[in-house]
Every structure is written in C-alpha cells, then in structure tokens.
Amino acid sequence: MKLWRSLAHLQSVAAPIYSQLWELEGSSHQAACTVLEVAKECTALNKDAGCLYHADAIRATISLLQILLRNPSMERQQLENSTAACQDGIAICRSLVPKEFTKAEDTFEQLLNEY
C-alpha cells in the first residue's frame, strides 16, 4: 500500500508540462526517494518479494538521474547529494534481482560515471 501511494505521488508530478518537475528538492525528487526507501524496507522484510519492487525502483532511479542531468548548474553540495541518491538507487535496484538481470543498472552507473 505504501508503495502504491508513493507511485501515485510520483505519477502525479511526472508530467513533463511542469517546469518545477526537475527541481533538486522538488516533489519528484522526494517521491523518487520515498519509492526507493519503501522498496528497500519491503525487501528487508521479505527477500523473495524483491523482484516485485524492481520496476518501481528502476523508475524512481531514472527520475533521480533525469533530475541530476537536467540541472547542469548546481552547487557542489547539491551535486554530491544528487549523485549519492542516484548511487543508492542503483544499489537498491541491484539488490532486488539476480545479477544476470542488472543490465539497466550497469547502464545507469556508466551514465553517472560519465557525468
């Protein structure tokens, strides 16, 4: 139920119409972090259910990466915080599925390292 509410919040702000969508401390950033926290907590409770949260965690990580890439002029502290959030998202996504299914996470990590 928590994950559904978080995703509903993420979906409501994910329309590309709004310019505030890609703000560093905006509601999309908070919603993506919430989805990742919920996925991590639920996986800690039931390790076998981790694959059920993988798609949601991938979507949240993509949102964090987009926020990072669409804000080229950010302060050093904001850059470090956003990079750390993306790295946490990638780590959470990798922990949810077997290693054979982590191609998307490898691509995200390569993109983040190039940035």
Computed CA radius of gyration, to the nearest angstrom: 14 Å
Largest sheet: none
Helix content: 55-70%
Total helical segments: 5
Global structural class: mainly alpha
First-to-last CA distance: 35 Å
Report the sheet-strand fraction: under 5%
Taken from the alpha-carbon principal axes, the silhouette is: globular
Number of strands: 0
Count of domains: 1
Written as H for each helix and E for each strand, in order along the chain, the element string is HHHHH
Average residue pLDDT: 76
Question: Which regions are unreliable across 5 or more consecutive residues at pLDDT < 50?
Answer: 12-19
Question: What does this 3D model show about the protein?
Answer:
This protein has 115 residues and is mainly alpha-helical. It has one domain (2-9, 31-114). 70% of the residues lie in helices and 0% in strands. It has 5 helices and no strands. It has helices at residues 2-13, 27-45, 54-69, 76-96, 103-114. Helix 1 packs antiparallel against helix 2 (27-45). It is globular. It starts with a helix and ends with a helix. Residues 12-19 have low confidence and may be disordered.
